[in-house]
Amino acid sequence: MHDSTLPSIPRDYVPMLLVPALMLAMLPLVGSMPTWVTLTVAGLAMGMMIFIMSSGLTLVFGLMDVLNFGHGAFVSVGAFAATIVLVPMQGWMEADSLGMNLGALGLAIAMAMAVTAVLGWVFERVIIMPVYGQHLKQILITMGGMIVVEQLIHVVWGADHKPMPLPTALRGAILLGDAAIEKYRLLAVAVGVLVFIVLTLVLNRTKLGLLIRAGVENGEMVEALGYRIRRLFVAVFAAGSALAGLGGVMWGLYKETLTASMGGEVMVMVFITIIIGGLGSVGGSFIGALLMALTANYAGFLAPKLALVSHIVLMIAILLWRPAGLSRK
Amino acid sequence: MTDALLKLSGVHTHIGEYHILQGVDLAVPRGGLAVLLGRNGAGKTTTLRTIMGLWHASAGKVEFNGRDISKLRTPDIAQAGIAYVPESMAVFSDLTVRENLYLAARSGPMDTARLEWIFSFFPALKKFWNYPAGDLSGGQKQMVAIARAIIEPRELLLIDEPTKGLAPAIIQSLADAIRQLKGQTTVLLVEQNFNFVRQLGDTVAVMDDGRIVHHGSMAELAADRALQERLLGLALDSHQ
């Protein structure tokens, strides 16, 4: 449709280069290749899990202008809901077969996403709908909602910590040269990449995705084009909750222990990720989550005291460079 | 005025504590180009937003094709056959020109012949087809906004101040494009720039303080200098 005399279509490559640039820059500082590989894979795995939990929230923020401080509740519920499948399928989880392990895990993830999608739908109807456009009330009522959900988890699953062991085939590490890489971290990276690819394809290649992106920018105009954005809101909220549920399962397996407050505990990282990435941007969240987790890992190795503030320092640096986040110049 | 496609009767609109429209009576004849003129703050944009259901009328009736649409939601009003080009243009800047138009084509794939017709008066859209709409100039964004409204046939097209902030050369090409739309669809065009609309309009209504203070034919107003000065003195001063 356009000829060769036109200037090239502007693309913003700089944020995409930040992650590989950070990884390469840290190699000489870390000094040892096996240590660098281990730190990098661990950082990527942690980043992917944070991305999975953040991706739904950033869409909810961007599309619905809702400050959902209760997002962590879906992370916790997702992890606990997975046990509905994992407990009776303990035999599959402990079998010495990758297929049976992944089968049980797949069913657990499906259960977690279904439960959290329904919970998200109810949460939107009962808690969010009365406070659209009222940010202070949104913060208060969603935090209250999270407390209620956490207490309900205690009622349903008990107040004690619940073990969530890794399936047999995903325990231990593989050796890559002298570098030890935990198998589960490779799975976390694979799931994160898969979620990113699916979301990117949906957002860029389907009309639904275009509507979501357009709605993030100007919901009123989407309605003026004849689309019911309320239905889109509810669907996105439910999908975002389901992604948090998936993140909860991954995070629970990573920690191997479940608590009702586990979702609330990761919310600081989730919020920093979506602020760094730019509200409403899935791609921005992806890069932001990876940057944050890698920075924390490298800082933890090179200057452990600095690791305590690495998230905040990274956020300040990025917002000074791009005040609206990585996705917006 | 016997065959009005759109009819507003005694429409009042409040925005918060402000009473903006104070009993607007307006008829848009089917197949014509009606112009709504008035100074800043007269209530022109509020009138269009009330028609689209973006702000709901607190009293009065908005009828489209004889059906009361004043209580309908915006998507239902759009689906009834009304397209809207807002003053802000509201192009989706993260989406390409193609994606902006693709979204507006609700009923399915874009009609190639209609697209070529649009390209015939907005050639820049073809040139920048795969470019993010946010990277276009103001005039090009206005072209996207209008093209989005006409990518599928709609019975009524509402256009809010399309010349605002645009260079004279762009304004002339917009006038040519809007002239092409005449006969294809009914248009209600809101403007402050009388020189722009005097060549386009069939009928004209003038607003002041949330009320229609004059309505009649454009030819009549264009020929009556005294009437223009009485009704539009400020607007004429700022655009001549």
Overview of this protein structure:
The complex is a heterodimer of chains A (329) and B (240). Chain A is mainly alpha-helical and 329 residues long. Chain A has a single domain (32-132, 165-321), classed as ABC transporter involved in vitamin B12 uptake, BtuC (Orthogonal Bundle). Chain A has 13 helices and 4 strands. In chain B, the strands form 2 sheets. Chain B has a 6-stranded mixed sheet, sandwiched between helices. The two termini of chain B are 31 Å apart. Chain B has 10 helices and 10 strands. Chain B has 240 residues and is an alpha/beta fold. The interface between A and B is medium-sized, with 24 and 29 residues.
N to C succession of SSEs of chain A: HHHHHHEEEHHHEHHHH
CATH class descriptor name of chain A: Mainly Alpha
Reading the helices and strands of chain B in chain order gives EEEHEEHEHHHHEHEHEEHH
Structural class given helices, strands, pairing of chain A?
A: mainly alpha
